[in-house]
What does this fold into?
Amino acid sequence: MSRSVLECEGLVRAFGDLVAVDDVGFTIAEGETYGLLGPNGAGKTTTISMIAGILEPDAGSVRVDGEAVTTTTTGAKAGIGYVPQDLAIYPDLTAAENLRFFGKLHGLRGSGLDERVGRVLDVIGLVDRAGDRAETYSGGMKRRLNIGIGLLHEPRLLILDEPTVGVDPQSRNAILESVESLSGEGLAVLYTTHYMEEAERLCDRVGIIDAGRIQAEGARRQLVGLVGERDRVRLGITGRAEHAAAAAASLSAVVEASAGDGCIELIVNDARSALPGIFEAVGSVDAGINGVEITEPNLEAVFLHLTGKALRDE
Amino acid sequence: MIRASLLIAAKDVRQRIRDRSAIMLGLVAPLGLAFIFSLIIPDFGGGDFVVRVAVVDEDGGLVSQAFTDQVLGPFADEGLLEISDAGSRDETLGLVADGGLDATYVIPAGFSSDVLAGLPAEIRVTGNVDAQIATEVAAAIAAEFTGTLTGAQLAAQASGADVGLLALQAAQAARPVVLSEAEAASKVLDATTFFSAGMAIFFLFFTVQFGVASLLEERIEGTMPRLLAAPIPPISIVGGKAIASLAVGVIAMAVLTVASAVFIGADWGHPIGVAVLIAASVLAALGIMAVIATLAKTPEQSSNWQTIVAVVLGMLGGTFFPVSQGPEALADISLLTPHAWFMRGLGELHAGGGPTSVAVPVAAILAFAAVTVGIAGLRVNRMVRL
Ligand SMILES: Nc1ncnc2c1ncn2[C@@H]1O[C@H](COP(=O)(O)OP(=O)(O)O)[C@@H](O)[C@H]1O
Ligand SMILES: [Mg+2]
It folds into this structure.
């Protein structure tokens, strides 16, 4: 096992009565990509903010390469590349100016700065537009610049907070590819998302977070094992999906049931033998079925299994 | 820490310079308005300040003669007064009403004999409504003279001396008393300088307002988390904002001073005195605008409140019209603004004072700066967070 770059433990943060993050801790090793997977409001951004040293924790500690990170430390922060969830660029400055400014803030200067700015512009594909103001860029270009700033000073730990939200599929794929190649260079990456597919594709290990707590943690295979030898069944529903879910949940073969928008998701022991009974139960509550999908359990199923909720609320 | 502040300041200044509306507000508007105002509004004092008066001497006695010859004469010789030949009382008052004269003295029949008999007597001063300062000067001269007479009368009564003789002597010796008034008049800036200075200090408050308020901007724009994540002390972010504000304020004022002198002929006075006044004023403007920014929740709210405060202080501080022309209470209230002290300081310099003549105005302006920068400093930390 290689050296750990990030170690955090016992992180707690409340906003008034709401405990947004409740005893969160994990480590990330060199070259490893760690995913925090959880729905909106789970506490991902709050956790990351404490790790990046921009939010004071109520309890707990963060170390990067063995050095403590707090809101006032400057040494340890130099090792972190932080890409906020919302765009954090100056629209009235050009890409090159944005990069140069943040590069200088991170202590780069002279030819080293020039070299890194040129390199990052190349990586994020903005060489041709480097002299245009960021406000003239497309959404995808702004996102790429946003990420590029985090890479500029060659951090040991790169923190990406939901970098693909609101991004068109093409840019999204480009972002995922570049994250994959970055971890290959020995960078430790902390990646938050509420997209199960991204976590499955990118992350060596995933922490499933809900309601401020890490519910389970491990490689994809380990997590899926938590669900057991079960299948995931997704039914398209006409009529009241909640009623259909409740009816299905009453069957002994159905382990978990949740209702979505026009569909229900089930975790089922042996889908083949259980399906007729499920169709009957759903039909009995005056709901129609307009589609069936049976898959192997994935992280979404794990989340459902752990929390009784669907990962996505859309 | 300093390096980080300077980096942030340089970034902010770059953003300001790129913002056309900031250049409009900081340079074009003040210079343009100063030029327009100075064209449409005639001088109310300053270099070639002359009060045009006439004396309607219905008395023709010894004392009235003394007033005309001994008191008004020397002022006329100095060029402060321009004394026209008077016709009848009605004709002269008509001229004053038309603006042909700034003011007139009417010495009623029996004035001299009343004075010599120890009775109260008055010289009536009537001024043109549009020549308020001129009227004040004219009235001050008369008031000093009658005051001297009254003093002599009282002294004579107390000592049992001959009232008439003492009063006459007093009248004839009365001349130097109003010299301080004459000096006050020359502290009034000419219109071009007045409006150049008034508009410069008025718009300075808009020019520096972005400084601390841009912390709100960074939070809205989402760049604050990135600044906080950088390996710099959080306080250096505030430092950068303050430096940017100061730099832009000083640059704008310097450009306005030079441009108004070169292009529209403003006469600012001793350069060191002007520089010190500007430096102090930029600090005070920064402090006042910063306090308001720390009270606001959004950039819009901050900008709205700052605008209101800048306009109210500017009006009260006499940047659009000389407060000396308004009621006395206004002149007093105006001293609660740095603007008034700035204008006052320039008046001192205009009257030929050196850098030390602005010590009191500068101290007053620095007091505004100290208090407001202190309050803002205590409050600003809450703005440097997510
Ligand atoms: N500054 C804040 N003030 C109050 N509540 C907050 C604040 N930031 C986050 N929260 C709350 O904390 C919880 C976790 O939020 P967040 O960490 O942003 O979740 P995520 O990033 O997983 O969507 C949410 O319920 C959110 O409303
Ligand atoms: Mg978030």
Residues 39 and 312 of chain A are 6 Å apart (CA to CA). Chain A touches chain B at residues 49, 52-55, 71-72, 74-75, 77-78, 80, 82, 84, 86-93, 97, 101-102, 104-107, 149 (CB under 8 Å). The first helix of chain A runs from residue 44 to 51.
